[in-house]
Design goal:
Length: 282
């Protein structure tokens, strides 16, 4: 993993934006003019909406004016809260959801379920889908998350939503290739680094090169949990947190994952969480 001042050609290199939406999640894949958005970030009772405050101005700034695919991992507000404002500005060609029945009524008829969905190609990036619990009999919304695996030229990027340790084991059983140490694995930490996820078995099996926590700065939930941070540190993962880095732009280049931190020089009152390693190499 290398930090980069921005000299990479983002237009020709597959890349990811991990948006800084506070306590929530929103990730965008872009390659060769094609886009996939995974989750919209939160909406809160205070009036904050991540789509209006973060996504819309950011997408406009980087020149993204259309969405080919929208994936909603599950229906919880920190992942799907921004759907209303997003659909006022974008009309995705394809919608895939872990919980289609929790989408707005006018969106449900054209939303495909995640469970069993065939792989897609975004530019030259293969997008695979997996889900543990689907349908009306599901026990927990978090464990109904639509898990997405991005694959490109030896890189794998895993977007697991909010799955728990129980479902992490099922994921590894169904996709044992995730534990293959060849290539480079980037992981967006499940459930924002909650102690209910990132079990020791899961962390050891994956040993990801880069782990990204998407959490609110000094949020009451306290994500990522210190035990989770310690597990990833123990396997040598490079750790980043959007609460302190701001939005992250990852480019999957021929030589390495190049990371550009939106908040490159944080003001003095924003510090990395205690015990969180954000070591970097040039």
């Amino acid at each position: 993993v290398a930090t980069s001042p921005g000299k990479t050609s983002w237009q020709t290199t597959p890349g990811l934006w991990i948006w800084d939406v506070g306590q929530g999640l929103s990730v965008m894949l872009e390659h060769q003019g094609q886009t996939l958005l995974y989750d919209t970030g939160p909406e809160s009772a205070s009036g904050y909406n991540a789509v209006e405050e973060v996504l819309l101005p950011s997408l406009s700034k980087i020149g993204v004016h259309s969405l080919d695919t929208l994936v909603i991992s599950h229906g919880d507000s920190d992942h799907a809260g921004g759907l209303g404002p997003l659909l006022m500005h974008f009309e995705p060609r394809r919608v895939i959801a872990g919980e289609p029945d929790r989408l707005p009524a006018d969106l449900r008829p054209r939303a495909a379920p995640c469970d069993g969905h065939q792989p897609l190609v975004v530019g030259e990036v293969t997008v695979r889908f997996w889900q543990a619990e689907a349908g009306p009999g599901r026990k927990d919304a978090n464990d109904a998350s639509c898990v997405v695996l991005l694959e490109y030229d030896g890189y794998r990027v895993l977007l697991p939503g909010d799955i728990s340790t129980r479902v992490e084991r099922r994921l590894l059983a169904d996709l044992p290739e995730l534990a293959d140490r060849t290539g480079t694995l980037v992981l967006v930490a499940p459930h924002h680094g909650s102690k209910t996820s990132s079990g020791a078995f899961f962390v050891r099996a994956l040993s990801p090169e880069l782990v990204i926590f998407t959490a609110g700065y000094r949020h009451r939930y306290g994500h990522p949990h210190p035990d989770v941070v310690a597990r990833y540190q123990a396997v040598g993962s490079h750790l980043l947190n959007t609460a302190t880095t701001g939005a992250l732009r990852l480019a999957l280049t021929e030589s390495c994952v190049k990371v550009h931190e939106w908040r490159k020089h944080a003001p003095f009152w924003i510090r990395p969480l205690e015990g969180l390693s954000v070591g970097r190499s040039e």
